[in-house]
Amino acid sequence: MKNNKFKLFLSVLVFGGVLFTSCADLTVQNTNEPTTEAVFGDPANLTKLLRGGFYDWSTAVVTSYGTHPDLIADQITSTNNVRNFWDFAQEPRIRLANTTSYGGAASWRVFYGGFNSAITTANLFIANPDTPDDFLAQAYFLRGVARGYLGMFFDQGYLIDEDFDASTDTPEFVPYGQIIDGAIADLDQAISLAASTSATFSFNAMPNPAESWDSDEFQDVVNSFAARILAGEARTEAEAASTDWQAVLDYAEAGIGGPDALSSIGVFSNSNIGSSGEFANYYADWSNFIVSCGSSVSSCSGYLPTDVKVTHSMDPSYPTTYPTAQANGTTADLAPASSTDPRLDGYYVYTTNAGFLRSTRNPNLYSNYFSGRLWSGNDWWQETNDVILFTDTETDLLRAEAQVMLNQGLAAANTLNNSTAGTGTTTIGFTLYSETNNIVADATLSGGYNFTGTETKAQQQFALMREYAVEVAGLGGAGTNWAFMRRHDLLQEGTMTMFPVPGTQLEILGIDIYTFGGVENAGTAGTASGANSWTALAAKAGLAKARPAGDNTFTPNNAKIDASSINTLSAKGAKSN
Questions:
Q1: Element containing residue 571 per DSSP (H, E)
Q2: What is the reported pLDDT for 39?
Q3: Average per-residue pLDDT for the chain
Q4: Are the beta carbons of 190 and 133 closer than 8 angstroms?
Q5: Residues facing residue 279 across a β-bridge
Q6: What is the dihedral of CA 322, 328, 331, 336, to 10 degrees?
Q7: Which DSSP category does 469 fall into?
């Protein structure tokens, strides 16, 4: 029976004629269609099939559509209609359609397809009694992270396991909490199996086969994702109060860079494959594209500029809404921010070039900054880059957040002081293009803040928000800031807090299409109330100050750029309109 179910699973979850596929914006797709005998008769084939599942999951995590969760989390901004960017950034928030004709819904279809496809592959291994324990551990990890992301991103989904029989069973949607419960159980099983096969264990199923991780490293990685996923379940601050924060803390302490980690790795990443996008961080590529350049970096503008939230997090006197009077067509002439945090001028580039922003659409969405830290010559496909999926900094922040939620203020202060907020630095694992080409002097700076343990809840939240916004964004895949902000009610009123099941699926299943978001629906399921919106957090924390009067003079970043290295947007299918 198990082998029959295995063969049925090879149909790859075709419900109502819809095939779950990997990210459409990537050039390479999983084409594995093995038989039971071919796979289990050759360990090399086992690895290839499993690698296909990790490809589906990881490329969904770093799809170029990772920009959309960042837009609604106020990480980046846009008035561009390409991919409906403007809809996701618009203020006041609008309700986002889930119809088959709405282009913006493609963002969540990519996530839904990639995660479900990965789950299908994992089930092939878990269903077969002949799967060796070392492969079984990796399969449980794959299913755990894929389920976890499905539960973090969507309001509901299928909880398909290895006993599902496609010929007789009917799948049913279950709420995100149940999906995440299943994810955590899978991750626990992965840790247990890896520990029991530690002498021979090797995790070598990531898309780039040149890299592998031993049992200790693998367990650190799995613990990290368990902490991220468990913390990421809550959609509101009220839900977060019911999160098992002690479990989050335990996982994080045993995660990458944690005090109970088994290995010394500081980052989980996999190197690019080739130089034409076979496996690369499309999310980082699109988020850090620069356009309209002259001869220096400061003459450029960001294709998706840094939102004022990020600037405000380092300079609380900086506006939370871009002033209309300073948005003058192609020019953005708000004076630069000022901060003792060296990352403001160290990571970000100030510019008066408004680029593709249009004041006729919404001048309040303007920005004067874009990220120089993660700029890669408009080409994240370079073989020297890695696809970063988890850093030791995020482990620190998860630990500190759990300590905050457990009312361990002194412990949280100590953790933050040793993190990037204080004196710590992020482990990148390779030299960023921006450093090599002198766009930034140092891509691993410390914030230099000091915490005493007497901070208020608002001050703690502001510090964590800043570190997620400045350090984690772009270095952990899609949705990290969105998930953090929603569980503290920091999203603006009317912001979508989770994605609906794609309308393409709902139509085929004969289920009414639904969606979330819009200020008129604030406080309803799937839509942020704005009760603790980041726009008022600095005032609550006693950090807001009057912005000092002054002119618009600034010291530009005069790092020279090679204009020939800036790919045209049309080369990657992007444009302005």
A1: none
A2: 62
A3: 91
A4: no
A5: 273
A6: -30
A7: I
